[in-house]
Amino acid sequence: MKKYTFRAATVALLLAAGLLSTSCEKQLDIQPQQSIDAGLALGTPEGIGTAVVGAYSRLYTPGLYGTNLVLIPDLLASEGYVAWQGTFQSYRELALADIENFNADALRTWREAYRLININNLILGGLGTITDADTRAQYEGEMRLMRGLLYFELVRLYGQPDINSPLGVPLQLKGINTLTEASAKVGRNSVQEVYTQIIADMQAAEDLLPESNEEGRFDKFDAKALLARVYLQQGKYAEAGALADEVITSSGASLNPSVLDIFTSKGSAEALFEVQQNDQNNAGTTNDGLATFYSGKTTGFRGRADVNVSSVFVAQYETSDMRGISGENIGESLLYVGDAVRAGRRSFKWNDPAQNIPIIRLAEMYLIRAEANVRLPSEGGNGNPAAALEDINLIRERAGASTLGSVSTAEVLRERELELAFEGFRIHDYRRTGRTLGGNPSTAPNRVLPIPDYEIQLGNALPQNPGYN
């Protein structure tokens, strides 16, 4: 099988489905009836609009938010949290923190992310055909926010945890549409350089995007919310808290009455941005997709029941807390004891492959604001512990948990873990806060994904991450 670089894998833009095509036989194999040259596809306003929609459709692929960008960060921090019971070796390696250089899902996520980044870049390069200024600004904001989000995921999974490390990920900011362009060798940008680009893209999107957009597409408040997430990861609590506050007070979103609502209905009041899925278009119902791996019930979608929730983690929830196992029947709370395939504790968050995947929801913004308010006083900032307590109790009351009389940083982090469980935050939160996993550093080399081996074998200037051969 002939190998190809991430750049050669992104040469062609498939207009109809927003997909890219490569071949095992040769570096590039584009069928005329399936694809169209990017210069032609993006040569009209209609073509650009179709390509933008196609870019969004890539987000639910299993290598991205359809599975891996949610599942992998949780498997990488599995201690006292989840166990992998399935047969897929790549996920087992991740859960055991014993990852091979050629891990199939490390490769799949890398490849899918860079394919979509190239689509973003090709669209950005073709915006000169759009004469309407508002439409052009919206498309630019959407593609820059998507690109910034993808680089944020990549640098956290494949880059070193140290912001001063030279081992980030390659920054590709120009669309590649020819083999000549694809043949150029690439290297790794520093972690700081990648974050600088992420923030630049998200800040630009914040300025360019409208305050509201159609469901399943980014708007200004999505940019603010994602930028708050980035600042939190960097420990910039004042900036993160201020943006989270803007989203809470001005986006028009509100917490759903029930913690189950956002995982059982589409476009609910709490959803800021969801990856759109339906019965025909989703990450998979057989051997892929979040519902496939998490669900284990005899009614509705059965699933494979591959992810078992640790009893240690379940015990952190109060018996009245609907985020734990509080209901007698499956579907009455967000955790349940499965009754199909395998015995075990399962998450009801991912119970239906046709359900949308929430990427940003308002509860996260309350948790970011609370963390900023509880941290800043000890760091000489203008925090507000009383406001932090109010935000945390709002989240807890909604779930049916008892309210707290005071709140510390540790309690905010615990609440964040309980609320955002199984949504792809765990390893990132443990790294940024310096917590250990099973007595070992969460920043250890075996918690960072390997650079795909084929990239290195092709002679790209991509040094492998420490701990891999």
Automatic annotation (TrEMBL):
Pfam families, sorted: SusD-like_3 (PF14322), SusD_RagB (PF07980)
Gene3D superfamilies: 1.25.40.390
Domain SusD-like N-terminal, first and last residues per copy: 96-232
Superkingdom, natural source: Bacteria
Matching InterPro entries: SusD-like_N, SusD_RagB_dom, TPR-like_helical_dom_sf
Primary location: membrane
Keywords linked to the UniProt accession: Cell outer membrane, Membrane, Signal
GO cellular component, one term: cell outer membrane
Annotated ranges, domain RagB/SusD: 355-434
Keyword Glycoprotein among UniProt keywords: no
Signal peptide interval: 1-26
Signal found in the keyword field: yes
Family designation: Belongs to the SusD family.
Protein name, entry field: RagB/SusD family nutrient uptake outer membrane protein
Source lineage: Bacteria, Pseudomonadati, Bacteroidota, Cytophagia, Cytophagales
